[in-house]
Write a structure and sequence with these properties.
Blueprint (H helix, E strand, L loop, with lengths): L2 H6 L1 E2 L7 H14 L1 H4 L13 H8 L4 H11 L10 H14 L17 E2 L14 E12 L5 E6 L14 H5 L5 E6 L13 E10 L4 E12 L6
Parallel strand pairs: 1-2, 5-7
Antiparallel strand pairs: 3-4, 3-6, 4-5, 6-7
Helix pairs in contact: 2-6, 5-6
The structure holds heme C.
Length: 228
């Protein structure tokens, strides 16, 4: 799976850039790239440069391929305009943001080859946006006007692609302090589960004063629900 990397055995986990280099790269990234890819790399008009997207596009490739993509096609409105050293600095910043450690040597045009790109390391998940497909666990409680709430709920997480609900990891997830208004809970016979620890998957809708989930999966995890 890492053909070039196997030759040298070296990967982006081996400290292939320095902190000072990543800091320089961060400054350029903010002016030249963040407008389209967002300061947190989360993606805007350009794709996300982290997480699953990063893994899918670049993991298993050579670091030079990642560099070349950036150095020859980005910024999209002025490709190849920044100079190789600046692009190297930006690559350092992107590696850092994807959770790879700094080392003692700067990344140079000569050290790009044969370095395998790995999927990014999980960092604290970035805040989840307004309309995301999420899963949470919490306590089912009746709300105002025949609505239903999930209280003492965990922070929402984006389920792994293709994971059937409830992901076993979700079942073990501890309760938290969030409250979600459940949309269309009536379709799931909620009375039978009042006070139970529930797993809910669905579309998160963030409003200024409350967060709602349009349910797509709803399952009981435990017949009681202790406050955290
Ligand atoms: C004007 C908007 C814009 C700017 C500015 C911009 N990009 Fe992009 N970028 C895009 C778009 C759109 C794509 C997807 C199409 C493509 O790959 O060319 C993309 C693709 C990429 C990709 C490939 C990601 C993938 O998953 O396919 C990388 C890496 C990247 N950009 C890095 C950068 C860096 C680093 C900078 C700053 C030097 C930058 N971009 C500036 C719009 C932009």
């Amino acid at each position: 799976m890492f053909p070039r990397a196997q030759e040298s055995g070296k990967t982006v986990a081996d400290g292939v850039y320095t902190d000072a280099q990543a800091a320089r790269g961060a400054a350029v990234y903010d002016t030249a790239c963040a407008g389209c890819h967002r300061a947190d790399l989360g993606g805007g008009t350009g794709p996300a440069l982290r997480d699953q997207r990063f893994a899918r596009q670049f993991a298993g490739k050579d670091l030079r391929a990642f560099f070349t993509k950036i150095a020859t096609t980005m910024p999209r409105n002025a490709p190849a305009s920044l100079g190789d050293n600046v692009y190297l600095d930006i690559v350092a910043h992107l590696l850092k943001e994807n959770g790879f450690p700094a080392g003692s040597q700067e990344l140079t045009a000569d050290t790009l080859d044969g370095v395998g790109v790995l999927p990014g390391r999980s960092k604290p998940a970035p805040p989840i946006g307004g309309f995301s497909y999420v899963e949470v666990v919490g306590c089912l409680a009746p709300g105002p006007q025949h609505t239903w709430l999930l209280t003492h709920a965990s922070e929402p997480v984006v389920p792994a692609a293709g994971a059937p609900p409830p992901a076993s990891a979700a079942a073990a997830r501890p309760l938290g302090g969030a409250t979600f208004h459940l949309l269309d809970a009536m379709a799931y016979a909620p009375e039978a589960h009042a006070g139970h620890k529930m797993y809910v998957r669905g579309l998160l809708i963030k409003l200024p004063d409350e967060e709602r989930i349009a349910i797509s999966a709803f399952e009981m995890l435990a017949p009681q629900c202790g406050a955290p």
